[in-house]
Amino acid sequence: xxxxxxxxxxxxxxxEVVDYFCQQGWEVYGIDNNMRADFFGPGGDTRWxxxxxxxxxxxxxxxxxDIRHRQDVLTCxxxxxxxxxxxxxxxxxSTF
Length: 96
Ligand SMILES: NC(=O)c1ccc[n+]([C@@H]2O[C@H](COP(=O)([O-])OP(=O)(O)OC[C@H]3O[C@@H](n4cnc5c(N)ncnc54)[C@H](O)[C@@H]3O)[C@@H](O)[C@H]2O)c1
Hints:
The protein has a four-stranded parallel β-sheet with strand order 3-2-1-4, covered by helices on one side. It has four helices and four strands. By secondary structure, it is α/β, with parallel strands linked by helices. The protein is globular and about 40 Å long. Bound molecules: nicotinamide-adenine-dinucleotide.
């Protein structure tokens, strides 16, 4: 089974990426620490979307990590994992 790591997975773009790839049969690991609520206050909270993804997709796994902690992120990946970073301040798509 193909695996995808999505950073910023509870956000607007990241959560759509999760939705799409889970529907395609990929196993998706999402990293998000709700930093958006720190930036914007309670109105920016993305926990509802995180829970919605968990309720909707059996192939989705949430990881409560800060993307800036490189080693924690690397431990989420193995040799065959694709990566799609969509957290704030980064908006590119990469494949490893
Ligand atoms: N939304 C758009 O129309 C649009 C258009 C062009 C580019 N972009 C870019 O795409 C990226 C994502 O946009 P978006 O609208 O999905 O943003 P968003 O704020 O909805 O989602 C970003 C997510 O990243 C998480 N996050 C932030 N910092 C984190 C950290 N250090 N560790 C873990 N998680 C963290 C937040 O909690 C949030 O859930 C941004 O860089 C944005 O500038 C967005």
